[in-house]
Amino acid sequence: MKEDSEKEQRILDTAAELFSRQPFHKVLLSDVARAAAVGKGTLYLYFKSKDDLYFAVLFREFSSLIDSMRSFLDETELGPDGQLAGVVRILAEHFYARAFNMELLGFVVTCPVTDEWKQLRADLWSLFEGIIRSGIEQGLFRDEDPALTARYISGLVRAVCLFAPGAAGLDEVCRHASEFVLRGLGKKQ
Amino acid sequence: MKEDSEKEQRILDTAAELFSRQPFHKVLLSDVARAAAVGKGTLYLYFKSKDDLYFAVLFREFSSLIDSMRSFLDETELGPDGQLAGVVRILAEHFYARAFNMELLGFVVTCPVTDEWKQLRADLWSLFEGIIRSGIEQGLFRDEDPALTARYISGLVRAVCLFAPGAAGLDEVCRHASEFVLRGLGKKQ
Amino acid sequence: MKEDSEKEQRILDTAAELFSRQPFHKVLLSDVARAAAVGKGTLYLYFKSKDDLYFAVLFREFSSLIDSMRSFLDETELGPDGQLAGVVRILAEHFYARAFNMELLGFVVTCPVTDEWKQLRADLWSLFEGIIRSGIEQGLFRDEDPALTARYISGLVRAVCLFAPGAAGLDEVCRHASEFVLRGLGKKQ
Amino acid sequence: MKEDSEKEQRILDTAAELFSRQPFHKVLLSDVARAAAVGKGTLYLYFKSKDDLYFAVLFREFSSLIDSMRSFLDETELGPDGQLAGVVRILAEHFYARAFNMELLGFVVTCPVTDEWKQLRADLWSLFEGIIRSGIEQGLFRDEDPALTARYISGLVRAVCLFAPGAAGLDEVCRHASEFVLRGLGKKQ
DNA sequence: TATGAATGAGAATTCATTCAT
DNA sequence: TATGAATGAATTCTCATTCAT
């Protein structure tokens, strides 16, 4: 079905761009095709349907986000507090890089949630949760319900990236958000 | 042209219900009409288009949310910490009451943001910001950027309501989230 | 069914005005009602349907045109040539007075032609035909087929009124058209 | 977007046929599509809207009429009188061939008159006017206002074709109308 | 008689999907 | 593989007509 992965990636890039700017029903497949410089029929060589394309985009974006975080955590020498600040930073960078990613963490409220999708979300949260738990073990954090807190973080970062007052730069926002979260986790300062 | 505001409200209620369960393009105006027990043409007596209806729904929900908060703040005797816990609770209740409301605070990513809409959002945030600032004045909170923090709160509550692990009840979630926020604001405990 | 003939006339006037400016399907009954300052339902007290209203308008305009001509012919002392010039003038005045009348004599090609309507048309033509025949009898005109010629006249006047080059005034047009017709009828000059 | 001009022509043919038998609002695009044996969506591949299709039909018919006349005039050896009889004949044939064409010269009363359309009308008239003027130069006709007379002719032919008494055949009508016009132009006989 | 909100059948238009090339 | 013209089911929107007041 696919071979020319370069073309598939171009379609995904284009679709990601368009889906990030308009709601699902305003994005026409003919727009996607034109912007990706492929024929409309070609889309169907790579994706079963419009829904399929949409989820492929979400999936790819989400996966790459999680991969970035995993790489960071694998390589860093920082403690849980530095790790948390780091993943907040990565999250924020993703949001800034493509408005679309903002949809990733919750927008698609009303869409059917596939198992694949649930898995990804769970991966993200358990990643946060892991950091929190290791912070607790080290006596750095305290939190009665790390699973819940893990869910706060993405929503918090999403909100502030979406709506940050114009003046606030990425650095400023990340620093402030990290401190807020760390204090929220009871980090002694 | 109209007069029967009761009918308009029924349409809005119905539409809110349907839009909360399906994405925009899956909600048919004929469904709305049938569910609201009015003729299809009647919808157009009250709303210019499907988009118009959609925004009217969003707007009403958001307005009612803000009104609830304002009433609460007007009547309560609580200090800033109690106020914050209160508005978190109200936010969470709205999200639980109708999944749809979850779109409220994030939806507008891809949609044309009107001035009316911006105003509502600004109202919500300044409401949070006001509480934070009075907490700071009273030496209860510390926060370098209350405007930024105000933006966290709704995103945080939204995320946790959307994704709270099944077991977590509303009370539990609210208590935990409030404490997290209050700690994040440096409240001495 | 009707009593308040003043209101009926107002509706007819208004409808005539609107039908003269737009094709049938662009004229909405709500426009007619508003412009006539009556309720939409009121239209149905006086006319069975939109079609009915349309034909009532055509009928009234046409009848008044024929009446004008008949009055003129009854009162004039002129010979057939003066009579012809006179009815051309009346025709042209009607066309100028209300663009709508231009539809009268043929526009409604594709509409169902009722018997009433056919009768009116026949009346108009026989009126022209009568003048021509009396001219022939008096040795003033010659024409192998007065019935055919009668049909020319209204079309000719209609065309020139519709499309007269901007500069041409009513007087000029009438004089020229009459002379053309009279010459066409072989009037010695 | 298109290429298959054959299909476009088939749609135009079909639409011309249907528009010639019913008023605009009675012609459904689904009828057009079915009769032209194309999908409903295909219509929109070639024409922006129903209005657009309608004007395309009018335009094509009118253009072909003028082309016929031009060809005739280019090839004929006849003098101005024969030329006039010839174009009258062509006009009448067009009207007979398709009732629809009858709208051509009058329809535009109530419709937005585009420049393209004005140009066509002007072309038709200047064609008549040219014949008349050359007749005048040759001492065959006399006419104080050939521009006005040019406008009579189409209206005259249209009227008689529309309303010719049943018995009158095309030949008969053309001969009679031509003679009438020629006499109107003062042709010595 | 008069009204105009309500209606819903009916129309125009759109767009995901197919398929012949 | 790649295309984009063709499709028609699906959807939004319109508007003549009705009817409760």
From TrEMBL, chains A, B, C, D:
This is TetR/AcrR family transcriptional regulator. Gene3D superfamilies: Homeodomain-like, Tetracycline Repressor, domain 2. It comes from Pseudodesulfovibrio methanolicus. Residues 28-47 bind DNA. Residues 5-65 form the HTH tetR-type domain. It holds the Pfam family TetR_C_24. Keywords: DNA-binding, Transcription, Transcription regulation. It comes from the Bacteria.
